[in-house]
Amino acid sequence: MKSRELLVRATNELSGRRIDNPNLEAEVLLRHVLGLQRETFFASLDEDLTADRETLVLELVTQRASGTPLAYLTGHREFFGLDFVVNPSVLIPRQETELLVEKVLELAKHHTGEALTVVDVGTGAGAIAVAIACNAPAAAVVATDVDPEALNVAAENCRKHGVADRVRLEQGDLLEPIVSPVDIVVSNPPYLTSKDMAFAPPEVKREPAVALYGGDDGLDVIRRLLRQLPSKLKAGGSAFIEIDPLQLEDVVKLAGEVFPNAGVSFERDLLGLARVVVIAT
Asked: What CATH topology corresponds to 80-280?
């Protein structure tokens, strides 16, 4: 079978499976198996495939059609212009989370004095921590996660992007591994509600629940994180926490209760939705 024919077959099999762009995903899977960049791929559509490669593509298409996330099948996901290794032990980085990195980097530009200290809480694949380390070379970054398997993936991504010497990985619950107060705490915590989890698409349900589920109202982990913050954040420090836009009022109220004298604000994502709560002490 030629690549063109397999691309059509794969696209047809993915169509109607709640997949937004079956043609693009079929292309990504085919290019992944062939090891080709997009330009080279389209120039080779009339080449014959080996039986082994054809079988592998069809196996991946079947897995994708059954709800396995595309990033788990290819083992990669782009975030903040960087390529990250991912597997089913970590949450797949999302575009909206890039806002967290942008806000930390904005603050880093104006930081003077001692080296900036940043903690990425619940690092997963290490996307936030690595992106910050790559773009703020003077920053000392710590990344925490309760799951040792997630930390193994984060370690691989630190090595991949040459920041293993500047990102310290610590296993533990939220901020518990942090001994000395830091300048910045950044986190994309689990914030899906019980209802969110029940009605989530099949591919979301394949991601680790510990990285998604935030309790009945989605705020269990955020509450614990906020309670830990006062002893872990320097005076004049800042915290950036990703939220569901529908949680804005509740999270701002919770943050105000923990930090009555701090400035509590929020930042909007590219869709204009409240995505990040900011605490400035």
From this structure: Rossmann fold (3.40.50)
Is 3-66 a domain of CATH 1.10.8?
A: yes
Q: Tokens standing for 232?
A: 């872990």
* Whole-structure pTM value: 0.94
* pLDDT tens by residue, 230-260: 999 999 999 999 999 999 999 999 999 999 9
CA–CA dist 278, 41 (Å, integer):
44
